[in-house]
Amino acid sequence: MKITECQVLLTSALSTARIPALANTHYNRNAGRVLEMARAYEYDGTRFFLSGDPVNALAGFYYAFGWVHFGISSGLLTTTEPVICPFKAPIELLQTPFRAKLEEKTIRYEHLLDLARTSVICAPDPATTSHDFARQILCIAGVYARHGVYLRKSGNLEEALAGFSYGHGWLDAGVTTGFFRIVAERHLFTV
Length: 191
Fold this sequence. Notes:
Elements: H1 3-16, E1 17-18, H2 26-50, H3 54-74, E2 78-79, H4 99-117, E3 120-122, H5 129-153, H6 157-176, E4 180-182
Antiparallel strand pairs: 1-2, 3-4
Helix pairs in contact: 1-2, 1-3, 2-3, 3-6, 4-5, 4-6, 5-6
């Protein structure tokens, strides 16, 4: 998938995203924050792409998708159209001039996601469904972290960076909406 195609999918998902919760409620405010952050990362990704930085564009778009999919899975967001998975097709290979930056960013994002995963604990009581969802978020972040390591070691840096960014987006959204308590490295989250 070309980075521009990913951006189109993301823009389409965000254009149909709706907040089902009543205005002036806790859920509405959380949903608004999730939608705001997804749009901010979409905007950042677009600005990076237009300025000739496909590496940061790639990271931004997949980070935003993490927020969008978190929002839909948590019930904070709904969409009028099905959201197409950005991992449905292989990501385009970036040209040689971008390889060093791609390698550095992929390794750094792998480290940041690992650090973020160990910097939070589930906030809800273990007997609640909110705790179950927090564990699901950790599982998703872990799956994308492990798969990203495999992809990086296989030389597929584009897919690895996308996975690390996507997993961190999920985790960041979970922190922002109260599913986790930060116990270290607060700077890794947007709260």
